[in-house]
Design goal:
The protein is mainly alpha-helical. Strands 1-2 form a two-stranded antiparallel ribbon. Helix 1 packs across helix 3 and helix 12 packs across helix 15. The two termini are 29 Å apart.
């Protein structure tokens, strides 16, 4: 591991403040449609905020390998548009009523309009990417979108059923880590000189960083879903269990629990509610088998693997920032 010190949060945001503001403006500009309802839904989603971690990763990746191109701003907006489109569709599929502490867009505009607005955001993101005239960018984005859709379909098939860890990691790779990976790869792609693959060795390392970080991010998300308060989470706690989703801590408890423990968890997954078994009862089972700690330890191992992935990256303030991100991901409370 490099002897380079890890940046602080303040240093990271000082480093990226101007670029992140430019991405926000670009996202707003790209979301402007001649059809008013599309613009209204897009602006509502942008105003909802979010961590903007995917564009942040793309910026750090690009800057870490010497990118000065304005493409980093356009593609930062592209990955956030893609992410936003997936959130719109997820809320419809999950019949969610809140997102980030506000009514979800589908509760305001209805499912039909939001499906189409999500589709529009997907296509707008591809139109923006197409302007780069770079087949590698399109190849990454098309493969990414296919994997995210496959992940959503696979998850729908598994709802209410027990899954093993291998199936869980396949799902969270497709639904979350794949976009982290591609955000990092895009940074290397746009930094490369047009006539040569100067950053090809770095693209693989940066992509591996994104994959590991994305897995850590989703595992932490799943733990927070079980343990955080509604007002901190910005949506009802234990939504995953209510939707019939078995996440890592739950899978761990199922493998180690008593017959009564397994029956309680199976009941909640099948009922998709806490009508017969209380949320507190499930938490007690998870704590008794140290399943929440197991999931967090796994997330921390992936976070450390992300840091190790970029050991050979040239030393810079951007590398220091990339070393900071895994700690932010594993210690957040929402």
């Amino acid at each position: 591991m490099s002897s380079l010190s890890i940046a602080t949060a303040a240093e990271v945001f000082d480093l990226l403040r101007d670029d992140l503001a430019a991405i926000e403006r670009e996202f707003t500009r790209q979301s402007d449609s001649q059809v008013e309802v599309v613009t209204d839904i897009a602006q509502y989603l942008i105003a909802g905020g979010g961590k903007r971690i995917r564009p942040l990763l793309l910026l750090l990746s690009a800057k870490a390998v010497g990118c000065e191109s304005e493409a980093r701003i356009r593609l930062g907006a592209v990955v956030e548009m893609l992410h936003t489109a997936t959130l719109v569709h997820d809320d419809i599929i999950d019949e969610a009523s809140t997102r980030r502490g506000r009514p979800s867009s589908n509760t305001t505009w209805g499912n039909a309009k939001c499906v189409l607005a999500g589709d529009w955001l997907y296509m707008q993101s591809f139109q923006t990417a197409l302007a780069e005239r770079n087949f590698r960018i399109l190849d990454l984005l098309i493969s990414l979108t296919q994997q995210m859709v496959e992940g959503e379909l696979l998850q729908m098939e598994k709802l209410g059923h027990l899954i093993n860890e291998e199936e869980y990691f396949d799902l969270i790779y497709r639904k979350t880590a794949c976009l982290f990976k591609v955000s990092m790869q895009l940074g290397a792609v746009i930094a490369a000189h047009p006539a040569a693959s100067d950053n090809a060795p770095y693209e693989e390392a940066l992509g591996e960083y994104g994959r590991n970080l994305g897995l850590a991010f989703q595992i932490v998300d799943d733990v927070l879903d079980l343990t955080a308060q509604d007002d901190i989470l910005g949506k009802p706690a234990a939504s995953d269990l209510r939707e019939g989703k078995a996440t890592l801590a739950v899978i761990h408890a199922l493998e180690r629990g008593t017959g009564a423990d397994r029956e309680a968890i199976r009941t909640v997954l099948a009922d998709r509610s806490f009508a017969h078994v209380a949320h507190t009862d499930i938490l007690e089972i998870l704590q008794r088998h140290e399943s929440l700690a197991y999931a967090m330890d796994t997330a921390c191992a992936y976070a450390e693997a992300a840091r190790q992935s970029i050991a050979d990256l040239p030393e810079s303030d951007y590398k220091r920032a990339l070393l900071w991100v895994p700690g932010f991901v594993t210690t957040r409370d929402r």
